[in-house]
């Protein structure tokens, strides 16, 4: 979901035209997805991993909602 | 077992790797073949002479009646110009599954009497859609993400021995040890390539996984409109009879003034314009820069080049993934890296099954998994070689020949999958592996005699590279298969 | 040509690296050769030389060619080393039988 929100919000905070910003968002989303999954599974407690991934997801979702 | 980062990553690596690995094996294998799609198309059309005359721009006009026929059928045809890889002019169009190509003499523009075939583009399409359109693209993009996760977890597991075990290969050690070494040697040295391919490949199809609209809207769209995966043929509206196109030689010369001499790759015919596009071989940036001309009088409409930094990055990723800028040396390196990627997934799947055989060997899920592994790994390769057999053995006058070739491929693959599941279900998986490896070996071994017997003008002393290379690779696959069947 | 030379340089470098690894020496029944000490920096210099060659040929694709030749060289060294280990194993078994 975090990766999806990054792509969804990228036209608002990304550089250049809408098309460029979406591509930029997709570039980030593809890199973020495996990193977040590895962090979520890799932490000692599943709760901590879930919290980290959830926090990133929340920030990305906020960027979609709050960005002007 | 102690719960450490390594064990957690081991779990992730094994399960995500096996689940996506069977698809990714096919993706890597078809990727290797797609590297030589043009050459394989030439193998599939042995009637076309290996040497041709030099290209004359005037010959382009001889193709225009055929272009107009295709436009009248609602297609979007394009002409690819001769290149170092392919000496012919080719008229191409997408039939909803693959790009079908017809070769023409580059000097006279006469159509060459070559069989109709799906050719190497079959593997190109299979590589990213599995012949199921948008659903296949989404599945493969998802597998690409799984590949990135598997690579990450694999590196963490193997971090300690990353340098010291880089060239450690013990094929004569115990079976599990030997397979683990093969897995490591096929993956660690090729990490740069695999990461590049996984990232750029997923990025190219990112739109399917990360659309710029919300998932709810995307899902609604899927149910609202028919998926574009269905072959477009029934939906294609025959275009009204078009006016004759202007002569193409002046258009080509005008385009070369902008793009550079010898930099034109293909000419695409649309209803509103004629697009003359830069060749993909011009450099590592896949710019798809094009000059558009009016189809009425041939005057320049516009010159399109996207210059922003983000677009440049996208072009670099596309260019590195498609690798159309490469010479033969680099192309073979890409091929080898792809082969090693496929070996990485095959060996990974074998290790996954070996480790669980003692504990779960009798469980139904294990048997299904092993049956699928047999069908996906050996069965896929067998279907590939069967495709080349079908190309040479199917009657030349057969109606819908390209489809028939594809059906032979799919039939052999499905048959192999069913046989694999059968043998595995009967608790005799080794029998299944051995029989299929033997069949693969036999098909591969006899591909060279088949080629020599069915290629017009073939002789042992004059074997053009395209044919010799394909036959030799098939022979190598056969020898490896026989050896593996012997050692199982 | 660049690909060939780079593969050669990488192979030499990886071979020297393998000669520095106790595990690799053990499986091939080898002792660490005496000439290694004076040339221990060569294994790091050879890849740099290969990279320079790639840049001289075409800067835009240099890193890609460099990485690809590294992969090829690693496979070649791995195959060569396993063949050597097998040969040495036979050799040492034969010597033991003769004793």
UniProtKB/TrEMBL annotation, chain A:
Name this protein carries in UniProt: Uncharacterized protein
Protein keywords: Membrane, Transmembrane, Transmembrane helix
Transmembrane intervals: 21-41, 47-66
Automatic annotation (TrEMBL), chain B:
Family matches, as Pfam families: PepSY_TM (PF03929)
Transmembrane portions of the chain: 12-36, 134-157, 178-199, 332-354, 366-390, 402-423, 435-454, 460-482
Top-rank taxon, per record: Bacteria
Keyword annotations of the record: Membrane, Transmembrane, Transmembrane helix
PANTHER family per the UniProt record, alphabetical: IRON-REGULATED INNER MEMBRANE PROTEIN-RELATED, PEPSY DOMAIN-CONTAINING PROTEIN
Protein name: Iron uptake protein
Organism per entry: Gluconobacter roseus NBRC 3990
Organism phylogeny: Bacteria, Pseudomonadati, Pseudomonadota, Alphaproteobacteria, Acetobacterales
TrEMBL record, chain C:
Transmembrane segments: 38-56, 63-84
UniProt keyword terms in alphabetical order: Membrane, Transmembrane, Transmembrane helix
Stated name of the protein: DUF3325 domain-containing protein
Species, as recorded: Gluconobacter roseus NBRC 3990
